[in-house]
Amino acid sequence: MNSRPQTRITLLGFTLIELLTVITIIAILMGLLFPAIGIVKDQARKAEAKAAVVQIAAAVKQYYTEYGKYPVADYNTTATPVDLKLGDTTRAGAQASNADLFNILRAKNVGKNLDNLYNPRRIVFFEGRAASDATSPKSGFLDQTVPTGGINVTQGAFYDPWGKEYTVVIDANYNDIIKLSTVYADFTETSQDSVDMGARTGVGVFSLGKNGEIGSPNDNVSGKYRNGSKTSDDIISWQ
């Protein structure tokens, strides 16, 4: 006779209703979590862009301190130069890409700065990381060779976290005001003295923000930085 005690194994499991309940709860939590992750990522991109526009403006001013002029290369050859805008030529109305400007600030011996023409002391005024994707550069420099068929990308240009070039406005006529009405329609000239309601600084830098457009098209005031109490998603250095 076998005197060993019998061991009974009880298998415990979830019922179908319990499984469906757990799955539903997980789905709800994920639905709440994903928007929060998106908000955090947007805030991080905005913080990155804000830091970048301030650093770019500081680099241009340091160049001015070192050389007694702004790094405008040979873009302004007229007898009466106007403020120079370098960056996004499609959406921000820039005269040219920001690539040559950053080649000068980074002491890169290429483009208009060939033979270090505009930075003969080879001082590095600005540093930044390279964008990881040459076909769609974001958050850095496009230092790689531009792929064949690349759309609206320029080698040497500096791109914001949303994939658009940072645009730099430089006081090329040296009147200590950057003319912002050429950028934002709500910065207009006054009828009293015809002085531009711009920023009293030698350089201003901005990112087009998440929507990739000047101002806030969603507020039906495309081209304006501010509409009453609403402010566009653009990131600017002068405020």
Describe the structure.
The chain is built from two helices and ten strands. The protein is α+β, with helices and mostly antiparallel strands. It has one domain (42-236). Strands 1-4-5-10 form a four-stranded antiparallel beta sheet, with helices on one face. A two-stranded antiparallel sheet has the order 2-3. Strand 8 (226-227) and strand 9 form a beta hairpin. It is elongated. The N and C termini lie far apart (93 Å).
Key traits:
239 residues; alpha+beta; four-stranded antiparallel sheet; two-stranded antiparallel sheet; 2 helices; elongated
- Give the termini distance in whole angstroms: 93 Å
How many helices? The count is: 2
Oligomer: single chain
Q: So what's the overall shape?
A: elongated
Order of helices and strands: HEHEEEEEEEEE
Strand order of the largest sheet: 1-4-5-10
Helical content stands at 10-25%
Main sheet overview = 4 strands, antiparallel
Strand content: 5-15%
Q: What is the β-strand count?
A: 10
